[in-house]
Structure formats: structure tokens, C-alpha cells
Amino acid sequence: MQKILFSLTLVLILTGFTNLRAQDPFKTDMDSVIAWYVGKVNADSIQSYMQSLEDMGTRFCLADNRRDVSMWIKNKFLEFGYPEVRLDSFLLDRWYGSSFYRTWQYNVVCQLTGYERPDEIYIVGGHHDAIVPSSSNPFVIAPGADDNASGTAAAIEIARIMKQYNYYPEATIKFITFAAEELGLHGSWHYANKAKSENKSIKMMLNNDMISYCTLPQEQWKIRFVKYPNSLWVTNLAHYITQNYTILNAVETTQYSQQSDSYPFYFNGFHTIFFIEDQFTPFYHTINDLVSTTNKEYAAEVVKISLGMLIHENGPGLHTGIEQPPLKSLSALYQNFPNPFPDKTSIKYSVSEPTWISLKVYDASGREVAVLHDGMQEAGSHWVTFNALTLPQGIFYCQLRTGTETSTIKLAVSR
Question: Is residue 11 part of a domain?
């Protein structure tokens, strides 16, 4: 089995990015690594974390069990085998209703230290507290499945994958779940302000908040990117990962930009993005925000975005386990251009040696709509033209298969 190189030399050809690694051409070897890792995202695992958090009854940040909630999350990271997990405690003075509360609050911080650039930090997280109206008594019940057990589950699932498959990043990755978001983003303000005062080199913060509600058919699944003016390259990278490694379509917005844990990081000058469901849950801040009303498969697609971005920014990793992703592939399928397109688009693929390939296009239901190549193919790079003039507007999938590998890209016909 091939050993992964310590680093990759990446050619700068994409425009719109200001970050060095984000300017690479998304080379085929890294494409294979990213695809391998995002393929490990497990919808059932995500749902199980969400259910465990819901089963706590309440995760209201002023409730007596607030430390127990954080300890449960901390213990999940420890179970995966992370040695560096801590509670990041801070004091919160807060009026709620007619009562004054002085409480200790607990962010959970799990660290995967980078082997090449350990002082550079990439954060993925979301808040773990929940709330319902005072009339429903959040001290007793605040299930918060979508808001925001889903975002907490995203951080846990990415941590599970990286540890299970022995991924060691170039820079340090921190999985953080924040406390007391619902009463004013207190956990993220505490962490971001402190990081700024200590001159921490936070390169990117990925915030997942409400990423599991969707009742639409798959071809209509969308994710909102809440973008920030200092983070164009992060938004562009999110688009690339979403387009090439998920079945989602992305919609940019600035709505909610000050209402979740990404904002304190932006305010302190760090690069960030906030992922939120496009179809907003009708159970927001109610006792009916339950796992039974969420969509685990949709949530898994959203989780792939953060995971793919982290892998892209931190290289293929160093591996000590038996199973590891392929660095070099026999074949490669590149994103079509233009995309979206009204009628015709060009698709590039390559093979490293003569081999049989199948290159076909399918609609969103999995029905074959075009055969672009089916047979032996000589080594090298090849271009084909896909003519969609007779097809309806919508999302299609182009799949390249060899005897041992499969690659898929998403095509968007738009008129």
C-alpha cells in the first residue's frame, strides 16, 4: 500500500482565492483523498449523536445539567482516542426572566495537532446548548435536535472519521462545541476574543448551526452559505467542495450572519463561514425540535462540506493505520466547464494506463440519459462534449467507472 507523502506541491491556477492552499487547482490526487474521506460520513452516526443529545431532556445553558452535557461531548472525543480534550470554562452573569444567574459555562475543545504547521489552527464547530420559550420551561425541556444537536454532531462525526482512519493534518484542527449561544453567543465570544488577544493563528472557522431539516426530494436539496466580507476564499472553497463532493446546491446569503458562533470569529478578523439549512425548520425553538423531524441523510451531505474543506486545507495526512485513502488513481474525472450550462458542456477525464472505462450521465433519479464512452481508452487526458439540449433543466450526474474505481461529478442544466 502506498505511503502518503508529507506534503503536496499545489499549482496556483484558481482565481478568487487569497489563501495559498485554496489557490491550488484541486489536483486529482487530492480529489481522490477528499472523496475517500467524505465517503466515510455516516448518516446513522450523526443521527445517533443527535438522539443522545436530545435524550438529555434539556440543554438550556442555565439548567443544572449544563456541565453534564459538556462532559458527554468531551467523553465522546475521548472514546475516539483523542488525548487533548478539555472543557474551556468561563463565568456568565445573566438575567433570565426576573432572576439573576451566575454560572460557569463549558465549551468543549478537542484538538488534533498538526505535524507540519501546529501553530496554525482550523476550527469546526457549533453550539451545543438549546432553548425553548420560557412558557415551555427550558430548564426542564429543550430538545434542540436541529438547533443545534445537528451542528454538534457534525463536529463529533468529523472527529470520529479523522481518528478512526488515522488522519494527521498539516495544521492543527480543533473540534469545538460552544456553550450559551442561545443567550448571546457567549461561548464563541469567549473563545474568539481570547484567541485574538493571544495572537492565535486561526486560519478558518467552519460553523454548523441547524443543518438537519429538509423535507424536499434530493434533487432540490440546498444548503445556505452565510458568508462574511473578509472570507471570499472560504466561500469559494465551500462552493468547490459542495459542487464536487455532495449532492447539494449552495445558496449564498448574509442573513443570520450576526446570529451564530461564526460572528465573533469574523468580528475578531478570522476567516469563517456559517452553514445552515435552506428549508428553515418550523420547529425552531420549540419542544417539537426532535430528531424524528430531521433528515439524517441531508445532514450527512452538509457534514461532507466541512470535512472536505478541512482535508483540502490540511493535505492528505500522515497515516499509521491499515486502511488509508489512495493518493494516486488510475483514472480522474474533472469538473465540467461551463457549469451550470444551457445546452452543451465539456467534460475532461484521464487514465494513467490503457484500460476499459464507462462514462455515463444519469438524472437525479438514477436513470441513464447518455453514454459518452463505453470501451477501451488509451492512456492520457481526454475531452468529450455532453449535449443536454433535449433534456430538461435540472441536476444530472456524470460517472466515470473503471474496473476498480468510480468517480462522479454533478452537472447543472440551467436555462
Answer: no
